[in-house]
Design brief:
The protein is of the alpha+beta class. It contains 13 helices and 13 strands. Strand 5 and strand 6 form a beta hairpin.
């Protein structure tokens, strides 16, 4: 018997994290705002029902929010990241194979011995995560990752399922696929969805029943893998994604506009630090770095608008924050223009490859090894004692460019001075 795959997805994750530490938010609409409290990036189910859309500018829905007494919170990524880590720790107890897919999603495998009653297994996972973290998760179980995505999506919607749905060898699998729009199938992007609909392929069931030759001609081997996955044939292993990430991007709008090169340097150094951490966490190295800075797109006068961008290919692919920072400091002066008020900036790392598959640095292997050990030590200290406990000297996170988070809740689980007090 083939192994099963489960997708565990936290429901309304950001909003639920806020509710875990503030019971007054239960049964009340909640929205979470982006950096600088600009746009809605997360909504509770109650907020969705009010018609508040994802990425809606805060000022556009402020009246609606006040009318319906919607609770508003600034994004608290340190809290969300820590709660995510706690969920993943719980999931590791249920399976030797865990793939963290995003901050609120993970795949696990279920061995044949555990498959006698997969619905009960899913309920146990759901209840254990809830008991340990306070977070409600949905569990979708199927024979492939793509079908597990379908099962999870329907588990969220079905009152009868109560957040757990098993589609392995299920007579309900065809009904589930028929209820899933083709554009919601994992790995089907917007362009492919539009193309498929133009040929009358509107649901996941339609896609599953397509001719292999036609799919390969229209969508190449990646599309054919998706179709086979919908048929219960495992093509995407744990640790693999139908659309692997090709870049790492860290970009923010500034709390206040900045105009000097030193202020831009500080912001870019901070973003490089975050990007380097992402590389090392994913065990990737980057071959090229792009830096950009922009004025506000809402500036009325064209003379007040400017967007600068520059890219440098690295001598050797790297995951070292120090090397990336040196590259950024070389190219930043070339794109900077004095006299402008910059409202956002960011860095993009491209040419990503696995750290294990990278060519050896024959001429500077000692220097590379020292930097690798240094980065590992810094990452370890920051993981234990909080973000930026140890940091590279160029950046601080208190400048004008730092994001405004006027409605942020306390970082209950990662900062001693913000821990919850019991009276």
């Amino acid at each position: 018997m083939k192994r099963a795959i489960a997708l565990i997805d936290a429901n309304n994750f950001y909003a639920t994290c806020e509710r875990v530490f503030d019971p007054a938010l239960w049964n009340r609409p909640v929205v979470v705002l982006s950096n600088n409290d600009g746009c809605v990036v997360a909504r509770s189910a109650e907020a969705r029902k009010l018609g508040i859309r994802m990425a809606e500018p805060y000022f556009k829905v402020k009246d609606l929010i006040e009318t319906h007494k919607v609770a508003v919170r600034s994004s608290n990524y340190e809290l969300y990241g820590d709660m995510s880590s706690r969920i993943m720790d719980v999931l590791e107890e249920f399976s030797p194979e865990l793939e963290v897919y995003s901050i609120d999603e993970a795949f696990i495998t279920i061995d044949a011995d555990d498959r006698s009653n997969l619905t009960e297994f899913g309920k146990t996972v759901r209840d254990t995560v809830k008991r340990h973290t306070g977070i409600t998760v949905s569990v979708g179980i199927a024979e492939t990752k793509t079908l597990a995505k379908v099962a999870n999506h329907l588990a969220k919607k079905s009152e009868k399922a109560r957040f757990v749905l098993d589609l392995t060898e299920s007579p309900h699998q065809e009904i589930a696929l028929e209820r899933t729009p083709v554009g919601e199938v994992w790995g089907i992007g917007r362009q492919h969805a539009a193309m498929l609909k133009s040929y009358g392929v509107n649901t996941a069931l339609d896609l599953r029943n397509c001719d292999d030759q036609w799919i390969r001609r229209k969508m190449h081997i990646t599309g054919l893998r998706t179709v086979h996955e919908l048929r219960g044939i495992q093509c995407v292993e744990l640790g693999a994604s139908p659309n692997p990430k090709r870049s790492v991007i860290v970009s923010r709008s500034f709390g206040e506009p900045v105009s000097t090169l030193d202020e831009l340097r500080a912001a870019i150094s901070y973003y490089i630090t975050r990007a380097g951490e992402k590389l090392r966490k994913r065990r990737l190295v980057a071959a090229a770095l792009t830096v950009f800075a922009k004025t506000s797109r809402f500036n009325v006068d064209d003379h007040d608008r400017y967007s600068g961008i520059a890219t440098e290919s690295l001598v050797m692919a790297t995951d070292s924050t120090l090397e990336l920072m040196q590259s950024a400091q070389r190219i930043l002066p070339g794109l900077y223009r004095p006299g402008y008020r910059y409202k956002s900036a960011g860095v993009i790392l491209t040419g990503l490859s696995s750290m294990t598959g990278t060519s050896l640095r024959l001429w500077d292997s000692d220097k590379y090894e020292r930097e690798r050990l240094l980065m590992s030590a810094i990452d370890g200290l920051n993981a234990r004692h909080g973000q930026d406990t140890v940091r590279c000297g160029l950046h601080d996170n208190e400048g004008k460019w730092a994001s405004r988070l006027g409605l942020r809740s306390p970082r209950y689980t990662t900062k001693w001075d913000e821990i919850m007090r019991v009276r």
